[in-house]
From TrEMBL:
<dbReference type="InterPro" id="IPR036661">
    <property type="entry name" value="Luciferase-like_sf"/>
</dbReference>
<protein>
    <submittedName>
        <fullName>Dimethylsulfone monooxygenase SfnG</fullName>
        <ecNumber>1.14.14.35</ecNumber>
    </submittedName>
</protein>
<feature type="domain" description="Luciferase-like">
    <location>
        <begin position="22"/>
        <end position="326"/>
    </location>
</feature>
<keyword id="KW-0288">FMN</keyword>
<comment type="similarity">
    <text>Belongs to the SsuD family.</text>
</comment>
<dbReference type="InterPro" id="IPR011251">
    <property type="entry name" value="Luciferase-like_dom"/>
</dbReference>
<keyword id="KW-0285">Flavoprotein</keyword>
<dbReference type="Pfam" id="PF00296">
    <property type="entry name" value="Bac_luciferase"/>
</dbReference>
<keyword id="KW-0503">Monooxygenase</keyword>
<dbReference type="GO" id="GO:0004497">
    <property type="term" value="F:monooxygenase activity"/>
</dbReference>
<dbReference type="InterPro" id="IPR050172">
    <property type="entry name" value="SsuD_RutA_monooxygenase"/>
</dbReference>
<dbReference type="InterPro" id="IPR024014">
    <property type="entry name" value="DMSO2_SphG"/>
</dbReference>
<keyword id="KW-0560">Oxidoreductase</keyword>
Amino acid sequence: MSQTPIKFAYWVPNVSGGLVVSRIEQRTGWDIDYNRQLARIAEQAGFDYALSQIRFTAGYGAEYQHESVAISHALLAATEKLRVIAAILPGPWHPAVLAKQIATIDHLTGGRIAVNIVSGWFRGEFHAIGEPWLEHDERYRRSEEFIEVLKGIWTQDAFSYRGDFYRFHDYSLKPRPLQQPHPEIFQGGSSRAARDMAARVSDWYFTNGNTPEGIEAQVDDIRAKAAANGHSVKIGVNAFIIARDTEAEARAVLDEIIAKADPEAVRAFGHEVKNAGAASPEGEGNWAKSSFEDLVQYNDGFKTNLIGTPQQIAERIVALKALGVDLILSGFLHFQEEVAYFGEKVLPLVRELEARRAAA
Ligand SMILES: Cc1cc2nc3c(=O)[nH]c(=O)nc-3n(C[C@H](O)[C@H](O)[C@H](O)COP(=O)(O)O)c2cc1C
């Protein structure tokens, strides 16, 4: 098992309604004051990263949405060590604009910004902003060019590129980002196209929640493909964490979230994402196998089963690490309180178990 401590990220609630499509009471805000405070709590609790979301329009909850690069910068300005990952959609963003924005933010924040290149699932959103909606694998072909171009701009002088989506001619970005060789590049997705892209160009692969068997299959697949390409990629897995003093309390919270789910919104969301996923030719997209209950959490976070007591959760996290997982991306019902609880009760147990395994 890796000697590097497993890393923790949390989803920035920069979109209203929290991370579950449910009418359960949530003490999670989406505004900037709530988010600044949360970022400070998370940094103090021992979280390494915060991941922002990009949404251009409402749909299935998420009535209000702050933009991801701007809010990432605000959270970096409010913290000292936390790294913040800005979600980016190729299409709406041009890589030259993004490369420049991120290089500047990198200088403003002492080298703590990263990006998450997502390929999109929400056709209605693209339609609303007049952006062409490409077929599934075409979206990934564009994302891969986007990442190649970002790396090129960030690391080369007089960068030139002739792709199907992007062209550059002797372009030199000044200043380059502080981070060397460049700010970290994350990506999201589970389909064949997503995994193949990760195995070629991404620093990190983020995937939806899943069972340990499902996660292991993805980790093995990506690592084998990456090794064949001479590339190395780290892996982050989504989990909706419900940590309570007793397992019964934690399970009761999950039951209540599902019982109070908004069935129409969950079904409509499921229809949209399954459509997006089904368009991946092999049918292994992010939500291909998601049930109604899974879909109540936008990214299948209940499936990872980090629901129970601090001890149970810590053991399951270390078991995921043993499968090759490098980072847990976490969502919570009441973010501020639960991130603090996680830092106090769960994280020390994870570190203890890691130390014990390392010594064994
Ligand atoms: C961790 C993670 C974060 C994501 N964040 C966003 C986001 O902020 N905005 C967005 O439109 N899609 C986001 N996505 C969804 C991706 O755009 C993509 O639709 C999804 O992963 C589809 O994957 P597939 O190729 O497996 O079908 C995210 C996915 C993951 C796994």
